[in-house]
């Protein structure tokens, strides 16, 4: 996609977002050149879903001016490599085992790793994440208090992959409602402020349902070449 197209599309997405809603430009599968173009158009926050690809992009672009959110399924054996890249956020914490591994590894590397807890509300077998009840129980049991090097900043989720707008809206509302319940049950949680939901096809609806951070890829960078 040409420079002017990325710039124009990025501006259009930004202009449609209310104040207080952040934008992760999901750059997975797109070349560094495309990221530089988005950066030149003012974008600083990028989303990647594979540790290998993020490693290559951080090697070229750094992790200071460019900030990175990891949004893909993460295997525990990749946690060390990922935390070394100093991602601004790991959005896709989908199990207690993974969270514990992140906490251990962040402590070992002497950093505090910001994370989001991934919720599974979509009607699909293949999606990762905590069920709302499961996550509520986990917070209610105050299990987060045993973490020493992880900052839980909120939740992330995806809606069902469907054309059924009512279904998508129900999913987003379920994500937001779970977040609100956690806030009510654990008012001492600090900086638990992020509700990451909404992608290219559904982000306006996600924002209407209470998203504070959208993850938009193809609407900015065009289709991906898998
Ligand atoms: C790829 C991806 C996105 C962006 O998807 P688009 O439809 O291209 O906007 C958002 N979130 C996650 C978790 C993804 O894997």
List keywords for this structure.
single chain, binds pyridoxal-5'-phosphate, TIM Barrel, 226 residues
Protein model, in words:
The chain has one domain (3-221): Alanine racemase (TIM Barrel). The chain is built from 9 helices and 8 strands. It has helices at 3-16, 32-40, 51-61, 79-84, 96-109, 132-140, 165-185, 203-208, 218-221; strands at residues 22-26, 45-48, 67-70, 89-93, 113-119, 150-157, 194-196, 213-216. The protein has an 8-stranded parallel β-sheet. α5 links the parallel β4 and β5. The longest helix is centred in the last third of the chain and has 21 residues, at 165-185. The model has no long low-confidence stretch (mean pLDDT 95). It binds pyridoxal-5'-phosphate.
Summarize the structure.
The protein has a single domain, classed as TIM Barrel (Alpha-Beta Barrel). 42% of the residues lie in helices and 18% in strands.
CATH architecture: Alpha-Beta Barrel
CA(first)-CA(last) distance: 15 Å
Structural class: alpha/beta
Count the E strands: 8
Top CATH class: Alpha Beta
Query: What is the percent of helical residues?
Result: 40-55%
* Mean pLDDT over all positions: 95
CATH superfamily: Alanine racemase
Characterize the biggest β-sheet. 8 strands, parallel
Q: Runs with pLDDT <50, length 5+?
A: none
Ligand types: pyridoxal-5'-phosphate
Strand order of the largest sheet: 7-6-5-4-3-2-1-8
Proportion of β residues?
15-25%
The gyration radius over C-alpha positions equals: 17 Å
Number of domains: 1
- Globular, elongated, flat, extended or rod-shaped: what is the shape? globular
DSSP helical segment count: 9
The CATH topology annotation reads as: TIM Barrel
């Amino acid at each position: 996609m040409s420079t002017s197209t990325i710039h124009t599309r990025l501006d259009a997405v930004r202009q449609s977002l209310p104040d207080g809603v952040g934008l992760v430009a999901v750059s997975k599968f797109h070349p560094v050149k495309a990221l530089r173009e988005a950066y030149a158009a003012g974008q600083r926050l990028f989303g990647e879903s594979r540790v290998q690809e993020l490693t290559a992009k951080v090697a070229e672009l750094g992790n200071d001016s460019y900030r990175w959110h990891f949004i893909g399924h993460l295997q525990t054996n990749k946690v060390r490599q990922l935390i070394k890249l100093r991602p601004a956020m790991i959005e896709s914490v989908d199990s207690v085992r993974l969270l514990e591994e992140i906490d251990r590894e962040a402590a070992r590397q002497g950093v505090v790793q910001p994370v989001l807890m991934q919720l599974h509300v979509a009607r699909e077998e293949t999606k990762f994440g905590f069920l709302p009840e499961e996550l509520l129980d986990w917070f209610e049991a105050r299990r987060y208090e045993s973490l020493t090097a992880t900052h839980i900043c909120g939740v992330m989720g995806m809606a069902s992959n469907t054309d059924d707008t009512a279904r998508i809206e129900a999913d987003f509302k379920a994500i937001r409602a779970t977040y609100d319940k956690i806030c009510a049950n654990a008012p001492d949680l600090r900086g638990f402020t992020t509700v990451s939901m909404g992608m290219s096809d559904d982000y306006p609806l996600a924002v209407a349902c209470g998203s504070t951070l959208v993850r938009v890829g193809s609407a900015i960078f065009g289709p991906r070449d898998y």
